[in-house]
Amino acid sequence: MFSRIDAFLTIGTANEAYYELYGGKRELFFRSSYMVDVDRFATAAAKEREQGKPLKAQLGIKEQKVILFTGRFVWEKDIGTVLRAFALALPVLSNTALVFAGDGPKRPIVEKAAQQAASHVYFIGFRQPEELGAIYGMADALVLASVRDAWGLVINEA
Prior knowledge:
Elements: E1 8-10, H1 13-21, E2 29-31, H2 38-50, H3 54-58, E3 65-70, H4 79-89, E4 96-101, H5 107-113, E5 121-123, H6 129-138, E6 141-142, H7 153-157
Parallel strand pairs: 1-2, 3-4, 3-6, 4-5
Helix pairs in contact: 2-6
Protein name: Glycosyl transferase family 1 domain-containing protein
InterPro entries: Glyco_trans_1, Glycosyltransferase_grp1
Domain Glycosyl transferase family: 56-158
């Protein structure tokens, strides 16, 4: 499959194992790191906060605090645990919203599971990378419950 490839930029051992599985040659692997333009995200987040979080109002989020999930709706992200934890904590977090920014094959299942805390759960769908800085800026906390992730780039972004 990779006979015409001169080099691979890899991001870890799991990535290298994947390439090897399909015929990639280890001597062509060159380690790279995940790159995020942290300054771009930080600038957009700071602007959102300085302006009084207008995106939060625009999205119709009425709660004072926002817990944010960003990512694909797939089993590896363990969104079920996020929802169960939020539902359990809701009595003491009554002025808190759980916002999901993302999409994926498990979204209908997640939306159905969210019904018990529906008035505090918001689905804002997939967002372009240039929108994420403001979304992080409206949040008070980020949740990442992945059971398998090479590295959650959302940590760098947030």
